[in-house]
Amino acid sequence: MEAFAVPGLPEFETGDDIATAIEAACDLRGDDVLCVASTIVSKVEGRTATLADYPAGPRAREIAARFEEQTGEERDPRFAQAVLEESTDLVMDEPFLLTETRFGHVGVNAGIDRSNTGGAELLLLPKRPSESARRIRERLSVDASVVVTDTSGRPFRHGQTGVAIGWAGMPASRDWRGETDRDGHELEVTVESVVDELAATANLVSGEGDDGTPAVVVRDWTFGDHEGSENLYRSVEGDFVRQALREWHYEQ
Fold it and tell me: How sure is the predictor about 209, in pLDDT bands with cuts at 50, 70 and 90?
């Protein structure tokens, strides 16, 4: 397969048409997968904010004070308030804020960005990224799939990688269960998160700094004839890491 960044895209602003801008910049095909950084999706959807929009409540002030006490670094309690308001679950509140967003993604600081914001003080994640992906896809003149990407850290590993937070036109994963490996053993648990793998591929091409390439086309990749699934986020009941974190906090 081939992956290439879409060249010459503008600095997106509220109300801009991502699909039209991308198709004006490259020859998109119907079997392509278009990976779009969540930053530009948030910008066109007006998901910008300032710290002044989030007067700090008692919980946010407590979190900020504890962070400063533990690290010696000052944290604006209004930022903590923004994270709390963008989250449905606070998984950890020290030494950093690990939260669940309204659409199910678990990440640091509810994915609120303070870089590549287009001049805004805060850039929030799209409210419903899969709906954003569907809207972009509907505006395309070809039947390409769309993946909305973000970068995220992972337990037990240094660094960040690209992950999918929204998708349209393809399943989130392909299911290998019931098939056999080369030794004839039946695969019992292998469900491949293809949208995350495509997002990571796109991140390799688009970069993390000032490249200005927030859209990547993945070409000549096919899903195959496997069963597909829309499940990407683990339920709380099936997330043993989250359960262990809660037990640890309770014991503290």
Answer: low
